[in-house]
Design a protein that fits this description.
alpha/beta, CBS domain, 4-stranded mixed beta sheet, disordered N terminus, CBS_dom_sf, disordered C terminus, CBS_dom, CBS-domain
Amino acid sequence: MQEHRLALGPSSCPQGALIVRSCCSRACAGVRARFFAARTAPFSRLSTRQRLVKSSPKPPSQPSNLPLRRLTSRIAELTRRRQLHQIFEEVKVAKKRHGKLNTIVMNAVMEACVHCGNVDAALGLFAEMAKPDGCGVDNITFATLLKGLGKAGRIDEAFQILESIERGTASGRPKLSSHLIYGLLNALLESGDMRRANGLLARYRVVLREEGHSIFLYNLLIKGYTNTDFPLGALAVRDEILRQGLKPDKLTYNTLILSCVKSRRMDVAMGLLAEMKEEGEKANNTDLFPDTVTYTTLLQGFGSMKDLLSVQEIVMEMKSSPKVVFDRVAYTAIVDAFLGCGSTKDALCIFGEILKLAGENAGLRPKPHLFLSMMREFAAEGDFHMVQGLRGRMWSDSVGFISPVAQGEADELLMEAAMNSHRVDIARQILSSILRRGKWSSWTSRGGMVALRLEALSGFTGSLFNPCILAEVSLDDPIEKYMTPFEEANPLRTGLILKKVAMRFYRDAAVPIVDDWGTCVGIVHREDCREIDAPLSAAMRAPPPCVTTSTSTGRVIELLIQKRYEMVVVVRSGSIFDAGHSAGSRPVGVFTRRQLLRSTAEEQVPPHPVCRIFGYS
């Protein structure tokens, strides 16, 4: 006799099954058919020969975590873009759609707050997660928050959190572990705060010793010394590593070499390189041999010291080493080192090799930074055609986004190359194009120095900036000497309706406004007068820009031109610091843009904000 079990509920429940015994398969099939017919019929019509036992209900299906996984990936993507506001908007929408989010998603939001430098938002998020109806906090939450507090320099708050964890009073009762301490320690070391980093190690040395002496901890300390004013202090950590019987790894040697490079001790760095090779051969460990990071760090040091022979030796050793991977970073470091040594010929050879290999491997295509580095050197040499060619190739052969700053620098370098090759007319055309497109940076930049040379050669009549000449005006004189008395400026009351004084704004671009006590409370500009029946107070810009009577005329002129002010109010010296000119200081005069232009030979507004004002006493 065979036994057949037809499940009506979970298989683990003995009551959720119907047992039918039969002597042959045909009888079994008949019973099975009658069973399914009885299952679809009403309970009142079930056969008395069949026993139906009510099965236990199935547990409700859990909602899928797929939307939350997608949300976490989306948060990580927005974190890389530093779009914290967008993250909070999408999390708000997700809460309305899915209800309470889990700890994994909220930890991703916490990491976004720390990455974007908004520690206050991270603290608010932590408080929300730690509420009784929140998703809860875990070790990752605390580690992320401690890292953020360390980066923001709020060390006292970070120590308070660590102490609450140690006492067991922290939310979620996390266990004090080395991972929590390492997050804060790493933030301290990145900022170069070795005093507090050593204090943190001394305070929680017992916790760190539970896991034994880890090389990871010493590597962090060495990295911390590279961010201080005494990078060679990392060598003392290396001695401690050897005393503890630990073996330095590749990261240890690379960070020590970086410390030597920052200290300009290349002899010590080369000694560490030799020791690195020796230890790798002695231990028969290929992971200890120098890699791309090792050699590029050495290239950075020799390039800054302009040691061309050492750079060439390092490059030859890199090409003969099987451990070195020549990627975009390695090639860029080689070119920068040659340019630092002033060897544009060698740099150009490596640059040509990059462009040749980039045709087969798109990952080797240089970034705009490399083109600009080459252009800087050739512009200084006055090689106009080379700079022009590199500028054109930057658009077609580079990879990544070419920022507006990089575009402006490329134009300025082309102008510098034209000036250094005595192509003054071409340099004037380039500068005119820069000004026409509004891509000017500043007079203090490298391009500004070139434009200053070009202005000196062009003179006042041929200047592209239309310089204004102030006759019989000294820029060192106090503004009190040239200002218009406040009564002569005919200020208007705040309560006046615009239509009663509308003709005033046809003559003056800006008019000072006073209250009933005669205090200047603002300025009304012509472009703000849009409602004819509105009072002047509705169109007023407050507070007005203010200077004291002792302020130099040159400083006031800079405010009018750089800040695009139409008027500057002058108050007595000392009163600006007492109660504020807009509330308690009585003005004594004004100086307007119109006054400035009346003093110049050409009465027109300068076409560009970097217009130069030359004063003669």
